[in-house]
Structures are given as C-alpha cells and as structure tokens.
Design brief:
Number of helices: 21
Largest sheet: 8 strands, mixed
Radius of gyration: 49 Å
Structural class: alpha/beta
Length: 540
C-alpha cells in the first residue's frame, strides 16, 4: 500500500508543479492615505480623532466599490483593473490600497490613480480645486491675523497702563476699553477659525497621500514551492483516506488473524503465490520446484493432514472454496503430489462436474471419468488414470452430466468413495465452490473438508454462510488453507514456512524480495516516464 501513497503524492506534486510553473509572477504596489491634518495639529481632540477613524473605514469601503473603480479605469483608459483591495489600518487614520498585477508598472500606476480618484470624491477636493476662492480666503486670514495681533498688543498696552493709574474714573474707563478689546479679539479669532475650516489646512474630512506607490521590484507570488508541497500533502492525505476507507469497507479475509478471529477455524496451510499459471502443462509446481518455500508449504500442509488422519482416521478429504478463482484445483493437485512423494497412496478425484480443471493441470484427456461410472456403468478401477511421473491415481470428471448435483448426492457416490478409500491412503476430492450445492452433498460423505481461501478475495459473510451450511450437512471442517499469498506479503507469511530454503532457488525469500522490489520500482518507473512525457509536451 505504501507505493500507492507514494505514487499519489508524487503525481499530485508533479501535476501541480506543471500547472504553477506556467503561472507568471505577480507584483504588489501599495499607496497610503491619511484622513485630515491631525498629524500637524498641536492639540487634536479625541472626538475628532475618533471621527476620523470612522471616516477612514468609510473611505476604504468606497474605494472597493464601482464608482471609484470605473473612474480609475476611465482615467487610465483601461477596460479592466487588476485585483486590488483597500483597508483602514485599525486604530489609526491611515488607509492602504493594495494592487496586485503581473505587470509591476501597471500595479504602481493603478494604485496611485485609485488614491487620486478617492481624493477627488472627498469634500477636500473642492477646496483645493477652487483657486480664486482659496486665494480670497487666504487673504482674509492674513488680514484677520494682523488684526488679532494688533488687538492683542492693544490689550497688553491697556493692561500695562492700568497699573499706573490712581484715579478711580480713569481705572474704570481703562477696564472698559480692555473689555471691549477682548470682545473684539474673541470675534476676530472666531472669524479666523471659521475661515480656516474652509481651507485644506483646517479641513478634518479630507484625504492626503502620505506614501505613494513605488514600482515593485520583487514578486509576491505565486509561492510555487509551497503550493507544490501543499498539493503533495493533500494528495497523500486523500490517498491515505481513500486507502483507509477502502480497507474499512472491505469485508474480506486478508490475514491469518482475520481467519482466526472471524471463523475460529485452524489454519493448516499457507501457500504462496507463484508465477506459474494453473493451465495444464504436464508438470506440477511442487515437482518442478522441489526446494522452493511454496513446495515446503505444501509439505507442511501434508504433515498437518497426516497428524489429523492418525488422530481422527481421516482418509477422504474434500477440497472446496467460497468463490471461483481461489485456486482449490491447483491446491488439490499439488497436495496430491506431495502426499505421493511422501510414500502414501493417493487418489485425486475431480468431482467438479460443471467446470472440471484437474485434467488440464495434468495435461491428460478427459474422455472418461467419474460421470461415466454413473452414466455408463464404468468400473471404478477402469476409470482410474495413473500419473506415473507424480505417482498419483487420478479420476477425472469425464463427460459433463446434465444433473451433477443428483449424481454426487446419490448412494452410488458413497460406494465409489468407499472403494477408493480401500485402495488408497488418501482420497482427495476437488469439488465445485460453494456457490453451487454440489460441495454440500459431497461434504456430508467425506471424512473432512479443507476450505481454500485467497487473502483479500473471500468475504466474511460468504465464509460464515458456508460454515453454517456445513454444520447443517453434518460435515467436519478440518481447517483453512490460505492460498495465493501475495509476494508483497511473502516475507511476513514466511514465518509459517518451517523448512530449509535453497539459497539459489528462484522462489527463495531473498530472490522473492528482489523480484518484489523490481516489480514495484518498475511500476514507479512507468509513472515517472509518463510524467516526464507530460513535462516535455508542456515545454514544447
């Protein structure tokens, strides 16, 4: 499973890299504006400062709206503006306008023009645009300012004179003059403040640019490395999640622990996956590879059956499975061969009268066999075919009958099995899988049943149902044979192979590990080759 996670991560990273490498670099320009002239005021009030903060938020929102956007496009002659946004800096009077574009000069120009259009929308723009009015107000301010100075000097002179007077009437007259001058000063100052509020220097609802946008020189994105890393991480997480979900939803028996926990049946055989197919070529795997770990697994299975035979007087054994393709026929044939190699007389019967395969494994004709004993009265001894190279006696299925279930359930089948048990130490029967009823009829007639399970293929519910049917039929289940154990797990399952392995055998653990690494590396090489082809096409 690790290679699946690695491949998913690798593909996600490469595909993302191919995508982001085509994306151009982006640049960002920033213009900063300020509300009012509070930075120049010696004694700004807190109320005015709070009001200016609210104005800053409002102006930032206006910048992001349609009027400012369209006015900027019209001023620059653009059909569309690059991405931008404006924000008011919290607890300040500043507004920042950010423009992001693949063209750094355009980003700078747009940022400054957005600020300019925002200023034109503010009341302070009217004050700065009316030149005549501004000059008049400035003249009035200068005149009033001089009068304020004169009035202040007059008040100071009268107050100095007041200290030297002795007459009560003169003192009273002087104080009256001082009061009049103070009232005049107050009026002049009020007029001055009113006129000043109508100028740029006195306006609180005005905008000025404090930092125009500079030409950006370094790109701000995209961060291609980070994007690739994130994509690889997402690919890994999704692949891991999918693998976990598939494993969670998978109700098949995958490990010996699953079989022991779910079925509570002993496992008496662990048969590894082989490169040979089950097509007949006249040779069995155990004969062609006598020193391989798979052959040793068959010998271990033979020993376990012999122990059970001595303890429970078992001679006839039915070999079946819950599904098609579990390899029961190949197990029956190779088990027969190793039993014969151990010096025991063995008869292998192909009782699969629907899809027989035993004759294909041994590469012999199927012109007569078990069905002919029933249909044509063929003698049992004459139905037996001797496989001299394997020292096995074999009864193939023969011609396929129209009613296989009735034939196998008949009393004549009981007599045939009894005759075979008298002439051999073991009678192995290859039956159809339990998707048909034939195996149930045979299970009730034999001394024991071997269930062949392929890891990851046999479902728990199907095996449970099979066991319930065996219980109802009164069959004795001897144990489970795990067949076609994947090469990727051969080292893990290798602990069950109790034998001495040839260092040079083609199925030795070392060579199996090497072959496994070659298979996995070959898959990854194909993935890499495909990705490089995509890269080359992108470059071209």
């Amino acid at each position: 499973m690790w290679w699946l996670l690695a491949a998913a991560t690798f593909i996600a990273a490469i595909s993302t890299f191919i995508t982001v490498r085509q994306q151009p670099a982006t640049y960002q320009a920033k213009t900063t504006l300020m509300i009012g002239q509070f930075i120049e005021a010696p004694n700004p009030s807190s109320g005015e400062f709070f009001l200016a903060q609210q104005l800053a938020s409002a102006y930032a929102d206006i910048t992001n709206r349609k009027p400012i956007r369209e006015a900027t496009m019209q001023a620059l002659g653009l059909d569309q503006l690059p991405n931008y946004f404006a924000r008011a800096i919290p607890d300040s009077l500043l507004i920042e306008i950010f423009v992001t574009d693949i063209n750094p000069l355009r980003a700078q120009v747009v940022a400054n023009e957005l600020a300019n259009q925002l200023i034109l929308q503010s009341p302070g723009a009217d004050l700065s645009s009316d030149q005549v009015r501004r000059e008049f107000i400035n003249g009035q301010l200068d005149d009033i300012q001089s009068k304020i100075v004169e009035t202040q000097d007059e008040i100071a002179s009268l107050q100095e004179k007041l200290g030297s007077l002795n007459s009560a009437s003169e003192i009273q007259d002087t104080q009256t003059l001082i009061t009049a001058q103070q009232q005049k000063l107050t009026t002049l100052q009020s007029t001055y403040a009113t006129l000043l509020s109508n100028t740029e220097q006195g306006a609180s609802n005005s905008l000025i640019v404090v930092e125009p946008a500079d030409l950006p020189t370094a790109p701000v994105g995209p961060n291609k490395g980070l994007i690739v890393i994130i994509a690889a991480g997402i690919g890994f997480v999704l692949a891991a999640g999918a693998a976990y979900l598939l494993d969670y939803l998978d109700d098949t028996l995958k490990t010996p622990e699953d079989v022991k926990r779910v079925l509570d049946i002993p496992i008496i055989g662990f048969i590894g996956e082989t490169r040979e197919t089950e097509d007949g070529d006249g040779k069995l795997y155990v004969s062609d590879n006598p020193r391989s770990p798979v052959t040793e697994a068959y010998r271990t299975l033979r020993a376990n059956l012999q122990f059970l035979s001595e303890a429970k007087q078992i001679k006839s054994i039915l070999i079946t499975s819950t599904s098609v393709g579990a390899g029961k026929t190949y197990v029956a044939a190779n088990l027969s061969a190793v039993i014969a190699q151990g010096g025991k007389e063995v008869v292998l019967v192909d009782a699969d009268l629907r899809k027989p395969r035993v004759h294909e494994v041994f590469n012999i004709s199927n012109d007569f066999g078990l069905s002919n004993i029933f249909l044509n009265g063929l003698d049992v001894n004459k139905a037996i075919k001797s496989i001299k190279t394997e020292k096995i006696k074999l009864i193939s299925s023969g011609n396929l009958p129209p009613n296989p279930a009735e034939i196998l359930a008949s009393e004549q089948m009981d007599k045939i099995l009894a005759d075979l048990e008298n002439m051999a130490d073991f009678v192995l029967i290859d039956s159809p899988p339990l998707i048909v009823s034939d195996a149930l009829f045979l299970a009730a007639k034999v001394d024991g049943v071997l269930i062949v399970i392929q890891p990851g293929q046999s479902r728990k519910k199907a095996v449970h149902s099979m066991l319930e049917q065996f219980d109802r039929a009164g069959a004795r289940v001897l144990g489970v044979v795990l067949n076609k154990i994947p090469r990727s797990s051969i080292i893990e399952y290798g602990g069950y192979y109790s034998s001495y392995y040839s260092a040079n055998g083609k199925d030795s653990p070392t060579n199996m590990r090497v072959q496994l690494e070659k298979d996995q590396s070959g898959y990854l090489e194909k993935v890499q080759a495909t990705i490089w082809k995509l890269l080359n096409r992108t470059d071209n």
